[in-house]
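Holo prediction. Input below; ligand is copper (II) ion.
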Amino acid sequence: MVDTAVAETAIGREPRRRVPRLNVLTGVVCGLILAGAGWGVSSWLLSAGDYGADRVVSITMVCWAVGFLVGVGALAGPIRWLLGRDLSVADEHVLAGKDQGVGRYFRFTTDHKVVGVQYLVLSMTLFGVGGLLAMLIRTQLIRPGARFVSPQTYNTIVGMHGIIMIIGTIIMVSGPFGNFILPIMIGARDMAFPRLNALSFWLICAAVPVLLATFFFGGIPTGWSVYAPLSDQAPAGMDCFLITIIIFAISSGIAGVNITTTAVKMRARGMTWTRTPIFVFGTVSSVALGVIAFPMFMAAMVLEGLNRTTGTVFYDAAHGGSAWLYAHLFWLMGHPEVYVILLPAFAAVLELTPVFARKPLFSFLGAVTGIAGIIGLSMFVWAHHMFISGWAPALDGPFMLTTELISIPTGLLILVLLGTLWRGTVWMRLPVMATFAMLWNFIIGGITGIYLSDVPVDQAMHGSMFVTAHFHFTLMGGALTGFAGALAYWFPKMTGRMLDERLGMIGFWIIQIGFNVTFLGMFAVGLAGQPRRVADYPSLFATGNLVSSIGAYIIGSGALIYLYAVVHSWRHGRRAPGNPWGAKTLEWQVPTPVPLENFTVLPVVTSDFYGYGEGGSAAPTPAPRRIAAPVPSGAAATTQEGGTA
Amino acid sequence: MTDTLTTAPADAPGGPPTVPAWKRAPIAPILGIFVVLCALLTPFALFVPAHLMGDAASAHMRGIESTVTAFSLASVPVAALVWAVTIYSIIGWRHRGSEPPAEEAPPLRGNTVVQVVWLVLSSVLCLFLLIWGLAVLRPTPSAASAGQPLMVEVTGQQWTWSFGYPDNGNATADRLVLPVNQPVQFRVTSKDVIHSFWIVQMGVKVDANPGETTLASVTPDRIGTFDIRCAELCGLYHAYMQTTVQVVSADQFASWVQAQPRATS
Amino acid sequence: MRAFVGVAGTLLGGAVAVALAGTVLAHATTAPHQLRAQVSGTASTPQGELPHAFLELDTWPDSMAGEHGPSGGSHPDWVSYGPASSLSVPAHSLVTVTIRQYDTGGELNNDFFGTVRGTVDGTATVDGRAVTQVDPTEVGHTFTIHAIPSSQDPLFVSVPLPAVADDAPVLDNGYPAPHVITFSFITGGPGSYVWQCEYPCGDGTYANFGGPMSAQGYMEGTLTVG
Ligand SMILES: [Cu+2]
Ligand SMILES: [Cu+2]
Ligand SMILES: [Cu+2]
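Structure of the complex:
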């Protein structure tokens, strides 16, 4: 009787909170319990024989991941649906973290803005760990004969640095900004699949401890490319590694489908493809490419897992398998993956450059064509990583052609950046520094890439430090620099505070200087013939390596300063207005902090968002203008008219 | 701002004679930076990469070094152009202050001529790279016609190289000795994981794959001692999987190979 | 000022994190024991009168008699060298190595390592008998020294250690009666080298080269000349 009364009044007042709000702690506890159970059962039943240890480790790791996801509440929706009581609107609000304060960042929260911030913190954490490992690598190589860590540990550090940075850079733009900014940018209230959105984030969180466990199970001797059959030989750390990749591939597939669907189906009324901001193109093409690419790596890892736990011989030539099968699967992912990392960062720079040059994007069509050309070609170049493998020398020519063709659409993107700067009024703020740094670094990365695309030159360079320096120039000098700019650009919208400009500038340029020192030194030793991934080297490479190591410490210092600027500004920075840059895209027209449903009234779009300098009534032919959405903040309207008053 | 207003209708009839947009652009200073950059980068491209790659010990490696130099030279104007515009935009077009500048820059939304020229130029450069690469890649007929090459069996195994001379009574050795100016064919394989057989100063690199035999050939043309390294991460002692190749006269080779232990089988 | 303190603190924190992680990882693998060759007298060699150094090693079918202690450490069942894996020998000397080989074995995957290489005269003695090669199907382990040759004197020594027969008599220490292999090589100038086994004895792993074959302190170690 009493119970009924309480229930009735509760319904009468406000919807009862019915979805359990678990958090990351319950996830860890549940994951550990299930992992313990999995470990107990599997070591009781399966630990005998050559594959025993691998079976036990694999099962334990999978159990951890499943337990963590259950414990964090990722399966609340499906479970309720199976029980026949699907989530109500009120439940969805609870899941979206409505009125839950800071706690919502530690929970399975579906609000895309929360997921974006979570991704941001995660990718910066990964950069911290990966950067720390980079410091250890450079400490080992500071002089020849140094035996700071054993070659065993060194190989593991190299592989872990690689994979942590790869995961970190893959998620660094499409994770934080693709989730937080992109839906607002296209005038949507949330992502297409909010629960999948949260799932994609928590899957990576489940995978990170598995990845770090690699250190405790003998490590990996293979680097992050885990070439077979060396991976067949590796200790149980390899099982942790491949389960990480499988989980990450699932996560990136989910995120890719989600972001793609959102951008295709949920753009505001009037936002035709030609009016869609270029950042949306870059992010969508990147994640869609990821949806095609990562299953290759996942398949490679599943086969490897079978090799290790059941004794199959997919990559073992002595028993009818082929090591080249692995190399193909890996590079079918590996080359597109470069563009999965690069494109959203490049697109973010394309997005912010017009804002600071106060000019329209130079040739929107050129930018879209460039992105599309890169995406299209990127799937037909993978065998340039196998020029010297002996797999098919007759195909060297065709793959050299496709690889070199990529320089054409890439060059187009460079032209778009230059054209946008051309005769602009470049407002020297922190975000646009990324444009300049990227133009510098990316040219070096691109030119050295052309050497490597040439088959004879590749015979001298392949597997040398030259390759390492080259891809760091594209992925770090290009993509990571773009991320630093994008972070500075969208930081006010995401955190409500301005990023400390002075410290940010100091950190940013120290990173850039250190970066160029490090990798120009590495180019030198690469040309001179130092193989990559070596724990020791002859003393004839001593100078170049010393330069590289000093440069690396400079990067480390700059990165820490930038990190301090971010963390300090996040907590104590100056409060940001709704549209501090006077930008025209939709995310700047909503108030800061962004309300739960982004827009009270959904906007209608009548032009693109690059009409800088075109807005004046004095213009002879009226430039297409966007009708301002009825948004609560007035900050936007003034800057829109501002240019030609 | 007023500037934009007065110059915007550039082709307005009856107005004062207007200057085409490109002439109002700071072409001269950008060109100046471009020339300075070219002057700095050209000697760099000419000498630095080839110098770092060291003295070649085969015609093939000399081809690689001249390719690197040629590609470096071809990319000098590209890099100089991009960097000239970048540097000028930092110096000449900058605006400081805490407020967004007025939108007085010309709203260029593309320029067909520039884009077409850019595309054509990059395609021509691309074609140049491809043709050059294919030309260097083509096996030189002289090497093929110079008679029977010396056969050398190269076996990679974690973490050592071993060499066999099937034409010389199955002599075996832990380092390579080759006669000068004699074409050599390497038959490369691996006993376990993938290694990569790399003779640094001869530009020879081919993977040693388990269960496969891959081929590489070269004609060493300089007497001296050169480096052999493994170029594919192959486990614990990958860094130590190195040895040397000694290029000697034909006579010295003949007496050396006589003294080597034979394969047991 | 506040920003300065904050930045300095962050930099310090970063340095501490790197140092901490480095220290932990540098000690992650059990620190190998050192073994110095004992110099006693001189010997006449093809390269003249040189100091004569002696080194004694064992190869065990498990890890309970060597540097991992009687409990065998984390992998008591792995084959191992003993008593230590980090060796040092004097430069420009004749080094005589004696290895007691207690392990059974089988066939090499590369007959190349069935031949004695890089020793004085290209010979070794097995139980007092001079040999230049052994039966490649009856090898227990090999002792193979190699290096990064550029900028230090090349050194390549490889000696096959014949396998103990399965029915060999068992000694008081629980191991079969060993083969005793002796060989000598001449060192050049100072340098760092590594040594390893080339008989694939990492049972149950791909190409039998995982496990003890891929871990320092078991079938691998370092050799410092200086
Ligand atoms: Cu690639
Ligand atoms: Cu190797
Ligand atoms: Cu062994």
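Chain C touches chain B at residues 109-115, 117-118, 122, 132-133, 136, 144, 146-150, 154, 156, 158, 193-194, 196, 198, 200, 206-207, 209, 213-216, 220 (CB under 8 Å). That is the main takeaway for now.
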